[in-house]
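Q: Here's a chain of 288 amino acids. Please give me its 3D structure as C-alpha cells.
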Amino acid sequence: MVVAVAPFAAFMAVFGIYPVVQLIRMAVSEVGLQQGGFTFDFTGLQNLRKILVDENTLPVVLATIVFVVGAVVLTVVLGTAMAIVLDRARFFRRFAKRVLIWPTVIAPVVVSVIWLLILSPTIGVLNTLLTAVGLPAQGWLGQPAGAMLSIILVDVWHWSPLVFLLVYTSLQAIDGEVLEAASVDGASESQEIWHIVLPMIRPAILAAAMVRLVMSVKAFDEMYLLTHGGPGNATNLISLHIRTVFFDQLQLGYGAALGLAVILGYGVFGIVLALVRIVGRRTESTHA
C-alpha cells in the first residue's frame, strides 16, 4: 500500500507542499537577489501588514470582486440556459454543440487578439460599424466602466461553453421517465425546468460555479493583453497586481505575501462554504 501511493506522495511533496512552503518563507522575509540566488531576511508579518496599508489594495480587491461576481454569475446563468435550451432542441443539436464549445478550445492569447480587433478604438470592428451608421466611436477599453464591462464580456464569451458542457452532461443523466410523468400530470415546460430539472442538476451547477470562481480569481491573460489593468486601477485584478509587484517592482517578499493572502482567502471561503453546507444539512434533517 505504501509503495502504491509513494509516487503520488512524492509528486505532491515536490509540486504541492514545497512551493507553498517556499511561498510562506518568502512572504515572511525581505527577499533580495544576489549572485544569481535569493537572500532571505526574516521580517515576520511585515509584508502581510503592508497589504492592509497599501493604497492599491482596496481598488484591486474591489475590481477583482466586481469582475469575479459578474463573470461567474453571467457564465453560470448563460451556460446553464444554453444547456437546457439545447437539451430540448429538436434540430441542429449536434451542429450547435460543436459551435458552442468552440470558444473554450481557443487559447486566451488568441481570444485577447480577437477581442482587441473588435474593441480597439482605432481599428476595432465595433467602432467601424458605429461610424458607418453615423454613430460616434466609443472608447470601450479607455473608460473605467467600459473597460470592466469589456473584460467581463470577453471572459463570459470565452468560458460560458465550459459551464454549458458541465451542465449539459448532467442533463443527459436525468431519467426521462421523471419528465414524462410530470408532463402527464399536466406540468408545463417552464414548471418542469424550475421544479424538476434545475433541482436535479443543482450539484452540476454548483460545481461549475466553483470552477468558474477559481478561474475568475486567477484570470490574467485576457486582462493583461486588453487593458494592462487600466485605465488607472479599474481592471487591475489581483493576478495582475501580483505580477506587477513581483516581476516589475521586484518586491518579491511582498508579492509572495499577496499570493499567500489569496490562498488564505480561498481557505476561509472553503471553510465558510463547508459550514453553510453542514448547517443546511442539519436544518433539513431537523425538518424531516
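Q: Can you summarize the key feature?
A: The mean pLDDT is 87.
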